[in-house]
Amino acid sequence: MELEHEREVDVIAFVSASLLDPTNHPTTTMGDDDTNDEHRYGFVDPHSFEKGGNRAWYHDEGLLAGVFHTYDEFRAAPWHAPRKVHVFLPRDYDDQADTDPWPTLYAHDGSGAFFANGEGSRSLRLGELLGEVFAGSSHSSASSIRRRQPIVIAINPIDRDNEYTHERQVEDAGGSLHEYSQYVADGVVPWVRAHYHVSHDRRRTAVMGCSHGGLAAFYLAAHHPAVFGAALCFSASFWAGMDSGLSVELPFLHMRQSSLMAGAHATLCDWHHRPRFYIDWGTNHEGHIIHSHVEALSAKRGAEVADILVEDYGYLEGFELLVVVGEGHGHDEDAWHARLPRALVWLFADPPPTPTPEEREHTRRCIQETNERERYLREQSSVAADDADDEDDDSAIAVAAGADRELDQEEQAQHHTIDNNEEPHELLLSSDHDDDEGDHDSDEAPEHSLTETEPSEIHSIHVAAAAGTATSS
After folding, report:
1. Tens of pLDDT along 422-435?
2. How far apart are CA 225 and CA 249, in angstroms?
3. CA distances (Å), origin 173, targets 220, 244, 253
4. 184-209: b or e for each residue (b if 16 or more CB lie within 10 Å)?
5. With contact defined as beta carbons under 8 Å apart, do 159 and 176 qualify?
6. DSSP 319
7. Which of 183-192, 323-332, 375-384, 395-404 has the lowest mean pLDDT?
8. Measured between alpha carbons, how far is 90 from 302 in angstroms, rounded to an integer?
9. I need a surface site. Which of 54, 157, 189, 384 has the fewest CB within 10 A?
């Protein structure tokens, strides 16, 4: 029995050793017999391995575009909470240092980008689309770098509504997008760059997402432009923080008044380093509330964001910004799947046009005008705040005057009140008065005068009156 056990261990060790690095998986040339999937794709049995302190599984789902490294409990750092992360590698991925590094695309709602395990059992089917868009692409020359299929890092959320929104929503959900963006930009991205042969160039690093994930993609690119050079925002929830509930709209507010755009202002003004944006929405706003309300809000706010980018920051459409409207598309994975190829081609396959000097001058003027408007609004806000402070001061003076009047009335009442069980108090208002016991010296203070007993009471009356309640003992 011991021999059999040892032989079993030896066999496992031999299989693992034969694979060496699971990223260097064997591939085969496609033959005429397309029905032989194993021959066509060069399947390798699923197996586990360790990379950068994380345990991963290699698995091949038969996709032409690539294979998976799935980390079920990924931690970019030991103190991070574990989460599932899929790394989708092209079949011709080569991690040799003398080859060109690969572009990367970070995808929110990780598993849903590839696998139909979400609501309604639908997914973006990103693996299929990558095979269609980048089929036949080569990286044999420097001129083809932009045509290379990206490595996709699909990150699962732990608390989606909280991590993917920048402001609190209904029932106090949401508001942790800033912390999540730091986790991705400062944790996940550096880890991937350290353990995979990927580009460190922001222009070849992009982030994408749908709905709340689209909002998160915009936020990450806007707040971490040194890391992400582009964001693909599908039916993005730009309305979060503006129209917080499914039955709440604020039609009198524009995205220019949103905290989202205020936070992105500095990045959008830096036209040398600002990110490119793909923004889209669908026109099917009927039927289920997810279409009639959520997609309708995504369309409304998405159009406002696109207008702001063009009008306020001089974004050049086609170069820095691509806006797509899906006719008849609703708020679901099928709609986003239909629009994904255009976004991928624009971002990775099409060499971007070079802006003309006239176009850049237009951008500069837009940014200048926007900054001047922002400066004017800040000045007006400061003036309004000063006016409000002056009004508050006038109100405080009026309250104090009212308190003084109440104090005078209280003192008068005390001076003319006599307790039937005690001797009457001596009054400061008169130094000459008749008394059966004789006259007092006018220079001698009365034994029970207000000068000895009332100062603390007067102070308490002023404080209470200023608070809106007059009290006396």
Report:
1. 443 333 333 344 44
2. 31
3. 20, 10, 22
4. bbeebbebbbebbbbbeebebbbbbb
5. yes
6. T
7. 395-404
8. 32
9. 384
215: tokens are: 């909002």
CA dist 308 and 267 (Å) reads 14
Written as six digits, the tokens of 232 are 């693909």
Residue burial 289-309, b: 16+ Cβ < 10 Å; e: rest? eebbbbbbbbbbbbbbbbebb
Distance set, CA 338 to CA 201, 284, 325, 458 (Å): 29, 14, 11, 77
279 strand-pairing partners: 233, 323
Model pLDDT for residues 253-300, shown as the tens digit of each residue: 899 989 999 999 999 999 889 999 999 999 999 888 888 889 999 999
Range 249-273 burial, b when 16+ CB lie within 10 A, else e: beeeeebbebebbeebeebbbebee
In the chain, % helix, strand, coil (3-state, to 5) comes to: 45, 15, 40
Q: Judge whether residue 384 has pLDDT over 80.
A: no
Instruction: Looking at 117-276, list the stretches that DSSP marks H as alpha helix, in order from N- to C-terminal side.
Output: 126-133, 160-163, 177-183, 189-195, 212-223, 259-269
Residue 355: the pLDDT is 84
Q: Residue 113 corresponds to which amino acid?
A: A
Report the DSSP pairing between strands 47-51 and 151-155.
unpaired
H-helix or E-strand spanning residue 230: strand 230-234
Per residue in 175-234, pLDDT (tens digit) is: 789 999 999 999 999 999 999 999 999 999 999 999 999 999 999 999 999 999 999 999
CB 85 within 8 A of CB 151: no
Distance CA 472, CA 411 (A): 10
* Distance, CA of 81 to CA of 78 (rounded, Å): 8
Model confidence pTM above 0.90: no
- DSSP-derived secondary structure for 135-147: TT---SSGGGGGG
Please name which of 303, 284, 298 lies closest in space to residue 215, comparing C-alpha atoms.
298
Q: Per the structure block, which two tokens stand in for 445?
A: 């203070």
The rounded radius of gyration (Å) of the Cα atoms in the chain is 36
In single-letter form, the type of residue at position 472 comes to: S
Q: How far apart are CA 231 and CA 296, in angstroms?
A: 21
Decide if 53 contacts 80 (C-beta within 8 A): no
